[in-house]
Write the structure tokens for this entry.
Amino acid sequence: MFKSISTRVLQHLIAQNSWANEILQPFAGKSVQFNIALFNTTLVILENGSLAIAGEANIPDAHVTIPPSLLLRLLAKDETARMQIDIEGDTHLATELAKVLTNMRWDYEEDLSKVVGDVPAYKIGQFTRQAASTIKDTGINLASMLSEYWQEENPLIAKKRHVEQFNSEVDTLRADTERLEKRLAKLSQAAADDNKPASKSPINKTDVDSQ
Amino acid sequence: MSNDHNTHFGFKTVAETEKAKKVGEVFHSVASKYDLMNDVMSAGLHRGWKRFAVEISGVSEGDKVLDIAGGSGDLSKLFSKKVGPEGQVILTDINASMLSVGRDRMLDEGLNVPAAQCDAEKLPFPDQYFDCVIVAFGLRNMTHKDLALAEMQRVLKVGGRLLVLEFSKVWQPLSKLYDTYSFKLLPLMGKLLAKDADSYQYLAESIRMHPDQETLKQMMTDAGLSKVDYYHLAAGVVALHKGYKV
């Protein structure tokens, strides 16, 4: 039942986004498994360039894995997060399908117009867009207000420049530690060589000092 | 008579030569009430299963489709809309009574779907002719399923696909309920609605004798089809298999 309904929804979306057919058709018969957070599904590309949910015995040609942490960044439209999506198998296929799914849009006004008519559908669409925009703006304002409060008034979260400075100091400390480790190793080696009776090569003090 | 030449007819064992005749009698008997009984037996679900099969087929405008054991023409009607005027759908059935129901319906709907009475084990079509071949609720009635699948594979183009929509093995926790429905309620409905309890008893028995999902997948692979996948529909009461000719 789930597969049947999902397939119908996918095919309806593809029919509304006919540009996707041309992109998908060369991959007909291939399938991609998406593991997104706790949810996983396999999509198969049909011969007419449409999509369906794969059956029980399908062996995917590619796997796309998006952990929950990455999903949040992707939802926030973080472009660098895209580079971190784990793709295995036919990467070209997975990339093209992901591109189609990302750019596909549901023309809900068109669907609504078949039920209530063109003009009411347009009005409902307009209202929905305005409402969504208002909710989005309010959300952004609220988030920035809270972030300012927790950074300035009642410090609870770190400022970006403080985090960057801390990261830079950690990097410097790591580099210093590595250098110190090398110097100690060299000194230990020199001391060991000194204690050997057969090979009495003197410690090259200038080498150590130069470190 | 050697056991090698016997086959199943429901739970009975009959000579291979007799099976087609007996199946023919069953479908001749139920032809006029076939659609009504399908709706009653499946609570209308068979329409959704058929629509799903058409969606999964990937058939587009201009394609050639062969509907085997198409009977009353439900699938041919759906496919003819998909392939458009440039495409071609051929409705076939071994049973003249069933085929005439389908042919008349196509004519009544104004659809240009040729109807041909033929045996799926000896298809009268050239090699590599169809983009899609479908057999819905027909394979289990065929005497030599392996020969029929091989014939379907033969008439497919390279890249073409075979779809088999058929009753299958139901999800185990529901099997007792399903048995009660099949062997008690189904013949009773057949008696009341179609005045033919025996034919519906045969339908229930033939469903049980049909291979399960994995076995049919293997049979399709053996017939030369690749990438065979299947879908459970209604908890496995029905399965849709799809395989490619490569």
Observations:
- Chain A touches chain B at residues 1, 3-4, 7-8, 11, 28-29, 44, 46-50, 52, 54-59 (CB under 8 Å).
- The first helix of chain A runs from residue 2 to 16.
